[in-house]
Structure formats: structure tokens, C-alpha cells
Write a structure and sequence with these properties.
CATH superfamily of one domain in chain C: P-loop containing nucleotide triphosphate hydrolases
Order of helices and strands of chain A: HHHHHHHHHHH
Number of strands of chain A: 0
Oligomer: heterotrimer
Radius of gyration of chain C: 17 Å
Strand content of chain C: 25-35%
Chains: A mainly alpha, B mainly alpha, C alpha/beta
CATH topology of one domain in chain C: Rossmann fold
Structural class of chain A: mainly alpha
Distance between the termini of chain C: 35 Å
Strand order of the largest sheet of chain C: 6-7-8-3-9-10
Helix content of chain C: 25-40%
Largest sheet of chain A: none
Structural class of chain C: alpha/beta
Largest interface: A-B, 45 and 45 residues
CATH class of one domain in chain C: Alpha Beta
Number of helices of chain A: 11
Shape of chain C: globular
Number of helices of chain C: 9
Order of helices and strands of chain C: EEEHEEEHHHHEHEHEEHH
Shape of chain A: globular
Largest sheet of chain C: 6 strands, mixed
Distance between the termini of chain A: 53 Å
CATH architecture of one domain in chain C: 3-Layer(aba) Sandwich
Number of domains of chain A: 1
């Protein structure tokens, strides 16, 4: 029973990170109708930036905050400068631009910081004030922190004027312009937030999987799987999806023979399965396109 | 560009000249260069498949590395475990890759643009892991992969030259077949599906059949490319066929010209030689970023200014010359 | 000085010229209607003013040229556009739609007052305050669209076919409320309509558009009472 609990809690922890990535994916998707394939590499790059800042300042929290802030700004700039020129171009062209970004960030990280693995300390203290074998201090911190983050994001969208404007700009850009919303800047803001959230995910996952340029590709896939599973039109659903994928992955690793090697395959099957049978995901709503 | 060029004597002569040129090349360059160009051809064949699927049929794939891998591994397994002659494996490679592609085409029917891209992305990321699975290790050689001999030399040519010729012949035959396909009624159906799927089906085209078959054909090409890639390198391993191969194929396709046949050749050559050149340039100085950063930037700029690739620019240039000379 | 003055306005969709040099003006406090058949360019005219299509020519509002502005700046000038098809934010609630209408406003208490004023004009909206806007009927969505425009405290309202797809009774109800709004709020209105009869009953002035050109203009009452005009141009 203990093992099961441990696995489930560890699954929730890694699932929280998938939920962050899933949320970033959904935010950009809702705002712009794009899947940002470069999300993982951007998050990885942010994590390296955090590492570099940690080397420079000695404070992991300071490095974290600065890296997240920098990612936010970078996300805005990338949207306005790189994505905007293709915003009315065919989907294929947009996908290629994201792939280009993916390659740039992946190789830039390798160039700046080489391909050796780095360690990034946990944001959370080793000493919890109580003893438990059920869950590591870092994982507990991950779960709590992610929940707090998601709560803040939820409140932002539900109760602030800007949050409402962002949703409106995504849902109906023409009408949004007619009420004075700068749709372009709302898109940029969406990218900024998504990049910041991705950076959070990266810093949280680095102590678990170790920091190197290919760190995030698997995580991104799980994030996508979680987002689709939960419902790509529903931020709450995407988060739930991420958590569920994390837990399922951990269970499969232990209880399914050969499960430990097939995590990514499982994610693939999940993605294809969801897309085929329930494209709206568990909690999403299908958007019907008129002919 | 959107449609393949018509059959004119100019087309036939140009193509003939290209074939002849390709045959002369290995006689005047080093063996190592022949090897490199063979690799470029193997990519080119796979890229041609990608062009058919995405450029002419409108289905996205950012996971073609999976089919490339299937071709490579099918050939490798037949050579290593069953002692088949490399070239004899090709029909089986074609069939195996076609079938996997065709089957993948079914779920792909329900997926539009971005979602299909996502599914193929997942496929590509998962491929190395699938290849490393313990249960299949006996066949796949696990993490180490499989080693085997390059195909024998013939007719007094060196090993690399011989492989070059076979790859080149297959490539040009496939280019010609692709041209023939696109000019047939089926080809028009394939392109109609790209341009307006709903209208296509109301015109009585069986879009489902065409789309899955096109996926199969595309995968078949990628598989054949993978097989030649395996022959040229004389080994396969799981981590070779990761997601980045899918990106390289995509880059080659886009740079060459995704809605074109010659673009595939350009793309393959670009992949091998562009990369080599870029590596040399980046080695010149600490300040110059690694090739793929430059390629990423280049890719993005191409989308802004030349979305139809190099071949697209060439065709635009030729059209302008034609207009200028006729007026 | 007229509130809105349009001179030599050409509008383009890609390479196609949809308006071929349109002239008209609108005085403060008046209701002007632009009539014409489908494809005449009526919606394009409103979209030109809201800077949602490429144009040539001059559009001045309160004496200032506005053709250089981006569309999201136009509401800040006090121009509220009730678009073709209502443009409802379907996933947001009625209340949130009205809040969005007030996006450019600063004073929270003023906004709250205005929400109440909108509910006073449209009691049905108050009943459905928290309801998702997409679930409202056509008539209710039209009311919501007008209410959203009112939240701007507009000097000029642009209305694109408010009668579209609505039954005669509800159309009349909405038009009566529009008449009240015009009187009480002091908002000038530029009204585009296919239903010439009901538009001419409300408006002071009228312009007639035919394939991108103004072919006739005058006092609404005169056009309405002129049988030849009615038969030739307005189809009744």
C-alpha cells in the first residue's frame, strides 16, 4: 500500500509539471489556435538561464524569479517579432516557424552551456519539519507550488479585466477590436504567460531529470498528451489531464510489464487515441466548424 | 508550383540531362563524396515522400523519421538476421513501410492540420524508445543497433560508387513515377483533396481512400530512403532515428520546395552539404553559432520570404524571364 | 461641422474594390441610414469606419481624420460598432459581454451605472445576466450587442442590420428602444439596413448604395413617401 501511495504521489508531482506544460500549450492554443511545438525547448532554455543565474547569484529563488520574468518578456518579444509575420499564413508555415524556434533554442542551449548535464537544486528545503517516506520534499513542494500557480492563473482569467480581454481576443478577435482590445498585444501576453509557466515547469523538473538540452522533449510530449486528454479547449481540463498522465505513467512503470521503457509510447498511444475517439478530451467541448 | 510541370520536350530534356549528370558525378569525385551524395539521395527519396504527402496532398507530418526508421530497420534485420542481399530487401522495405503508413493514415483521417502534426510529432518522439524495447531486442539489436556490410561493388566501380548508382537510379525512377502519378487522374484527386477537401468529396472523390493511400505511398518512399541510408552507413541504431531526423526531413523539404519534385533532390543535397558547410563556418570562430541555430533562423526567414523553397524561387525566376522575353 | 464626414471613400478586399468613392455625412444627434441590396457595400462602409478594411479616401470624425488609426483605437474616440451578425462573445456571460463593452472606460462606478442603464432598456438581459451569451435567442443577442455598444457611452453608434434574422415583432421592439436611446443618450446613429421600411421610419436622413456607389440621398421621410423611389430602389 505504501508503494502505491508513493507512486501515486510521485506521479502527482511529475504530473504537476506536465500540467504546467499542458497549461502553457492550452494557453497558446486558446489564444492563437497554434500548438507551439517549441514550448519544451523554450522552457529548457529558460531553465538553463535559471541555472546560469544561480551560478552567478548563489540564490536559487532569485535565479528562479529572474528567469521566469525574463521568459515572460522573451515570450512577448518572440510573438510580436517572429510569430506575427506568419499569423495569417497557412498553418503549415506557422508549424515550420515553431520548428525553427525549436531548433534554435535547442542548439543555442547546447552552444552556450555545452551538452553536459547540470544539476539545479530544488527550490524547496530538504527539511519539511516532519518525516515521511511517502513523498520527497521536492515532490511535495512541486505539487503545492503548482497548485498555487494554477490557482493564480485561474483567478487571473476569471476575475481580472485583462484576463477577460485575453479570453475575448482569443474567442472573437474582430469583436474584441470593436470594444477597444488590442488583440495583437493580447496574443503576445498569452505567449509571455505561457513561456513563464513553461519556465516554472522547467525549474521544477530539472532537479528530477537533470538539466541538459534534451530534457524537455519527453516532458513536452507528456504535456501535449495531458492537454489533449483533459481537453485542449479547457485549461482546467488540461491541468487535470497532466496530473492524470503523470500518475498513469508512474503506475504503468511499476505495474505494467515492460512499462518502464514505454512511457513515451504510452503518451503516443494516448495522443492518437484521444484525437481519434474523443478529440475534445475528457473535459473539453467540441467546437463545431461550419462548412 | 502548386501543380507539377507539364510534359514538354524541355522537361524531358532537362530531366535526361539531370540523370546523365548524376551518373557522371561519382566518376569525378572522391569515394567519400559519393558516399555523402548517396546519403543526400536517401534523404531526398524520403523528402520526396514528404512532399507528396504534405505539399501535394495537404497532410502534415512532422514525424517522417518513424517511416525512415522502419525502412532502415526492415532492411537491416533482413540482412543481419536472414542474410538477404541488401537490394533484395527493397521490395519488402517498400511493402512494410507502405503498410505502416497506410495504417497510420486511418487515424490521420480524423485529424486536421495541427492535430495531425501533433500525432506525427508524438510518433517521431516515441520511435527511438520503441526501437529500444527489450522484447524486440533480439531483432533490433537494442541500444547498440545492427551492423552489416555495405552492398557489394559491381562492374568495376568501387563500393561507394556502386551504391551511389543504385540509389540514384531508384531516386530518378521514383521522381518520374511521382510525376506520372501527379499527372494522372489520381494525382488531380490528391491535389483536389489538398485544396478543398469538402468540395473534393462532393465531387465523388473517395477522400478517405486517397488520403490513406497517399500516406502509405509517402511512408513507402521514406522507408526506401531509410533503407538506402542504412546501406550507406552500414549500420542502424535507435537513437539515430530520433525526432531531429523528422526535422531534418522537414527542413530539406521546405528549403528545397515542398510542392515540387526537384525540390526533394535540392533538399537532400542541402541537408548534407548545407550542414557540412555550416559546420565549417561555425568552426571558424567561437562567436559563430552552431549550424542548426543558423538553419533555424534560415527556416523562419524562408517562411516569411520564400515559402515555396529554392525550387519555388527558381520557378518564379523562370516565369519572370519568360514574361520579360515574351513582352 | 458634421460629426462624421466621409469623402471619396474606396474600400478593398484584397484586390477587389468594393466601394468606389462614397461620400456622405452625418450630423450630431441625427440618425442616418444607409440602404441597399445585398452586396451593395453597406457593411463594408461600416467596416471602413472601424478600420477593418483597407481604404483610400477620407473619413473624419469630429473634424479629425481617422483613417490612420488601428481598429482598436476607434472605440476610444467614442464610436461603437454593433457588427453584422451581432459579434457576441458566445462563451462569456451576458454580464461579461457588457463588461467587455466598457473595456476602454476607467471609472468602475460609472461602468456599474451604465450596466444598470442597459438593463433598464433591455430588461430581458437583466434576467439572463449570468447566462452564457451564446445561448440567448437572436433577438436577445441583438439587444446584447446594442447594450455592449452603449457601454462605451458612444457619441456615434454604427449598427449593421439590426433586423437581420429577427421576427417583425422583436424587430419593432428593438427599433423602438433604439429610438428611445437616440433621444435619451444623445448618441448619433449610422444605421445600415436591408429592411428599408423600418429604417426609414426611424432615420432622419438616408443614403442609397448600389454596388459600391451612392445613387441617392435625402430626407428619410421624403424617400419613404416617394413611390417611384420605393419601387425602383427599395422594392416595395
Amino acid at each position: 500500500m505504501d508503494l502505491f501511495l508513493q507512486l501515486t504521489l510521485a506521479g502527482l508531482a511529475i504530473g504537476s509539471i506536465y500540467a504546467c506544460v499542458a497549461l502553457a500549450v492550452v494557453m497558446i492554443y486558446q489564444a492563437t489556435d497554434h500548438f507551439n511545438f517549441a514550448q519544451g525547448e523554450m522552457a529548457m532554455f529558460s531553465t538553463f538561464v535559471a541555472w546560469a543565474l544561480f551560478q552567478a547569484t548563489g540564490s536559487i529563488w532569485l535565479a528562479f524569479v529572474l528567469a521566469v520574468a525574463a521568459s515572460f518578456i522573451a515570450g512577448i518579444i518572440i510573438e510580436r517579432v517572429i510569430v506575427k509575420p506568419v499569423e495569417s499564413a497557412p498553418v503549415f508555415n506557422q508549424i515550420i516557424v515553431f520548428i525553427g524556434l525549436l531548433m534554435i533554442f535547442n542548439n543555442l542551449a547546447g552552444w552556450f552551456w555545452e551538452h553536459t548535464t547540470k544539476t539545479l537544486p530544488s527550490l524547496f528545503p530538504e527539511d519539511l519539519g516532519f518525516e515521511t517516506t511517502l513523498i520527497s520534499p521536492h515532490n511535495l513542494g512541486v505539487i503545492v507550488f503548482t497548485l498555487a500557480l494554477l490557482l493564480v492563473v485561474f483567478l487571473f482569467f476569471k476575475f481580472t479585466k485583462v484576463g477577460l480581454a485575453m479570453k475575448a481576443a482569443a474567442a472573437n478577435p474582430d469583436s474584441a477590436r470593436l470594444v477597444g482590445v488590442s488583440v495583437g498585444w493580447m496574443l503576445a501576453l498569452g505567449w509571455g504567460l505561457a513561456s513563464a509557466i513553461g519556465a516554472v515547469g522547467g525549474v521544477l523538473v530539472a532537479p528530477i531529470v537533470f538539466l541538459e538540452p534534451n530534457m524537455m522533449s519527453g516532458v513536452l510530449l507528456y504535456g501535449f498528451a495531458g492537454a489533449l486528454f483533459g481537453g485542449v479547449n479547457s485549461p482546467g481540463g488540461a491541468v487535470a489531464g497532466g496530473l492524470i498522465v503523470g500518475v498513469l505513467e508512474n503506475w504503468a512503470r511499476q505495474y505494467v510489464p515492460g512499462g518502464s521503457e514505454l512511457g513515451l509510447t504510452f503518451a503516443l498511444v494516448l495522443i492518437v487515441g484521444v484525437l481519434m475517439f474523443k478529440p475534445a478530451g475528457l473535459f473539453g467541448r467540441v467546437v463545431v466548424k461550419r462548412v | 508550383m502548386i501543380r507539377p510541370n507539364a510534359l514538354t520536350s524541355k522537361l524531358v530534356l532537362s530531366f535526361g540531362a539531370l540523370v546523365v549528370l548524376g551518373c557522371i558525378v561519382p566518376l569525378v569525385v572522391e569515394d567519400y563524396d559519393s558516399y555523402q551524395i548517396t546519403v543526400a539521395f536517401s534523404y531526398g527519396i524520403a523528402i520526396l515522400g514528404l512532399n507528396i504527402l504534405t505539399g501535394y496532398n495537404g497532410q502534415f507530418s512532422i514525424g517522417h523519421s518513424a517511416f525512415f526508421a522502419i525502412g532502415a530497420y526492415t532492411a537491416a534485420i533482413m540482412i543481419s538476421h536472414f542474410g538477404w542481399h541488401p537490394y533484395a530487401t527493397l521490395p519488402f522495405v517498400a511493402i512494410a513501410a507502405f503498410m505502416v503508413g497506410f495504417l497510420f493514415g486511418f487515424p490521420a483521417l480524423r485529424l486536421e492540420g495541427l492535430y495531425l502534426a501533433l500525432a506525427t510529432f508524438a510518433l517521431a518522439v516515441a520511435t527511438p524508445q520503441i526501437l529500444k524495447v527489450d522484447a524486440l531486442e533480439e531483432w533490433t539489436g537494442g541500444v547498440q543497433g545492427l551492423f552489416f556490410d555495405k552492398p557489394d561493388a559491381f562492374l568495376g566501380f568501387s563500393i561507394d560508387q556502386s551504391l551511389y548508382y543504385v540509389t540514384w537510379i531508384v531516386f530518378v525512377v521514383l521522381m518520374a513515377l511521382t510525376w506520372a502519378l501527379l499527372h494522372s487522374r489520381s494525382g488531380r484527386a490528391i491535389m483536389a483533396i489538398r485544396d478543398n477537401p469538402i468540395a473534393a468529396s462532393t465531387m465523388g472523390i473517395n477522400t478517405a481512400l486517397y488520403k490513406t493511400t497517399t500516406f502509405g505511398i509517402s511512408a513507402m518512399f521514406a522507408g526506401l530512403g531509410g533503407a538506402f541510408f542504412a546501406f550507406a552507413n552500414a549500420f542502424v541504431s535507435p537513437d539515430t532515428f530520433n525526432f531531429f531526423i523528422a526535422v531534418y526531413l522537414l527542413v530539406g523539404s521546405v528549403v528545397g520546395g515542398i510542392v515540387s519534385i526537384p525540390g526533394a533532390l535540392l533538399g537532400g543535397l542541402f541537408y548534407v552539404f548545407g550542414q557540412e558547410y555550416a559546420e565549417e563556418v561555425s568552426n571558424l570562430s567561437e562567436l559563430i553559432p552552431p549550424p542548426w541555430v543558423t538553419f533555424g533562423i534560415f527556416l523562419i526567414l524562408m517562411m516569411y520570404f520564400a515559402p515555396f523553397g529554392i525550387w519555388g524561387l527558381i520557378e518564379r525566376g523562370m516565369a519572370r524571364l519568360k514574361r520579360a522575353s515574351s513582352s | 461641422m458634421p460629426l462624421l464626414k466621409v469623402k471619396g471613400l474606396k474600400a478593398y478586399y484584397r484586390q477587389t474594390e468594393a466601394l468606389h468613392g462614397v461620400d456622405f455625412e452625418l450630423d450630431e444627434g441625427s440618425i442616418t441610414t444607409i440602404l441597399g441590396a445585398n452586396g451593395a457595400g453597406k457593411t463594408t462602409t461600416l467596416r471602413a469606419i472601424s478600420r477593418m478594411v483597407r481604404t483610400e479616401g477620407s473619413i473624419t470624425f469630429q473634424g479629425e481624420e481617422i483613417t490612420g488609426l488601428a481598429s482598436e483605437k476607434i472605440p476610444r474616440l467614442g464610436i461603437a460598432h454593433v457588427p453584422e451578425g451581432r459579434g457576441t462573445f458566445v462563451r462569456q456571460s451576458v454580464e461579461e459581454n457588457l463588461e467587455l463593452g466598457a473595456y476602454t472606460r476607467k471609472s468602475k462606478s460609472d461602468v456599474a451605472d451604465d450596466v444598470e442603464r442597459v438593463y433598464a432598456y433591455f430588461p430581458r438581459l437583466k434576467e439572463r445576466m449570468k447566462q452564457q451569451a451564446g445561448t440567448l435567442s437572436g433577438g436577445e443577442q441583438q439587444m446584447l450587442a446594442i447594450g455592449r455598444a452603449l457601454m462605451l457611452r458612444p457619441k456615434l453608434m454604427l449598427l449593421d442590420e439590426p433586423s437581420f434574422g429577427l421576427a417583425p415583432l422583436i424587430t419593432q421592439e428593438i427599433y423602438d428602444i433604439m429610438a428611445r436611446i437616440s433621444k435619451d443618450e444623445g448618441a448619433s446613429m449610422l444605421l445600415v439596413e436591408q429592411n428599408a421600411n423600418i429604417a426609414l421610419n426611424l432615420a432622419d436622413h438616408a443614403y442609397l448604395l448600389e454596388t459600391g456607389n451612392v445613387v441617392m440621398s435625402g430626407e428619410a421621410s421624403i424617400l419613404r413617401d416617394d413611390e417611384t423611389v420605393r419601387r425602383t430602389y427599395l422594392g416595395y
